[in-house]
Design a protein that fits this description.
The chain is α/β, with parallel strands linked by helices. It contains seven helices and ten strands. A hairpin with a 7-residue loop joins strand 1 and strand 2. It binds adenosine-5'-triphosphate. GO terms for molecular function: ATP binding; ATP hydrolysis activity; transmembrane transporter activity.
């Protein structure tokens, strides 16, 4: 049996099928990410990176092919089962933080835990520990607008890891930060991922950051190759 946390088998995605503007974005993707492996996804703009991450993270379904999370077939699950697998097993980080503006940093990390059934006190304690780990505990009561860009992304990392997912998916997680902050914040993320033993697929245009990961893959013309 494979120890893969994420497996994509022959995944295709076609938009506007059968119409003149049909786009075959993914043309048969095979990808396996094993436990604890951190993989960089490098892709030119428009190559289908977001589509691939959304399919891997169960936010979208492939036109054909299979998605397995921790060995479990996801493609044929109903919406409800897929939603609960996503909530329990996958953490997302986007280029922009997407934190809830009305809530404090702590609340942004606690809320997904409450939604997953963690008792309040345990959730708050975990939020506090995560915020300390990434160096923003002193900003715990602040709302996102009161945080710097780097701090916002650090809180977003905590939120993504709040429910102890098996897989982390990140789309240019430090892409909106200046190069120096990006480098520092990215190091925090990589350290956190490695400490947690989490598997991760992290899209980046930055080849220096990509080189810090275990493996680099390139998405081009709808197919994956080793970078
Ligand atoms: N819902 C949709 N309907 C039709 N076409 C779409 C849809 N979503 C994406 N596309 C097209 O599929 C292609 C890949 O889109 P995707 O968002 O996955 O690219 P990307 O690699 O993430 O790009 P970028 O790096 O610029 O964000 C693009 O040509 C886009 O126009």
């Amino acid at each position: 049996m494979s120890d893969a946390v994420l497996e994509l088998k022959g995944v295709t995605k076609t938009y506007n099928a059968g119409q003149p503007n049909q786009i075959d974005v993914l043309r048969g993707i095979d990808l396996s990410i094993s436990a604890g492996e951190v993989v960089a996804l490098v892709a030119p703009s428009g190559a289908g990176k977001s589509t691939l991450l959304h399919i891997a993270g169960l936010l979208d379904t492939p036109t054909s092919g299979d998605v397995l999370l921790a060995g479990r077939e996801m493609t044929r699950l109903n919406d409800r089962a897929r939603t609960s697998a996503r909530r329990d097993d996958v953490g997302f980080i986007y280029q922009f933080h997407h934190l809830l503006p009305e809530f404090s940093a702590t609340e942004n990390v606690t809320l997904p835990q409450l939604a997953a059934g963690t008792p309040r006190r345990a959730a708050d304690a975990r939020s506090q520990a995560l915020l300390e780990r990434v160096g923003v505990a002193h900003r715990a009561a602040h709302r996102p607008a009161e945080l710097s860009g780097g701090e916002q992304q650090r809180v977003a990392f905590c939120r993504a890891l709040a429910n102890q997912p098996k897989l982390l998916l990140a789309d240019e997680p430090t892409g909106n930060l200046d190069p120096e902050t990006s480098e520092r914040v990215f190091s925090t993320l990589l350290d956190l991922v490695r400490e947690t033993g989490l598997s991760a697929l992290i899209a980046t245009h930055n080849l220096e950051l990509a080189a810090k990961m275990d493996r680099q893959i390139r998405l081009d013309a709808g197919a994956l190759r080793n970078a």
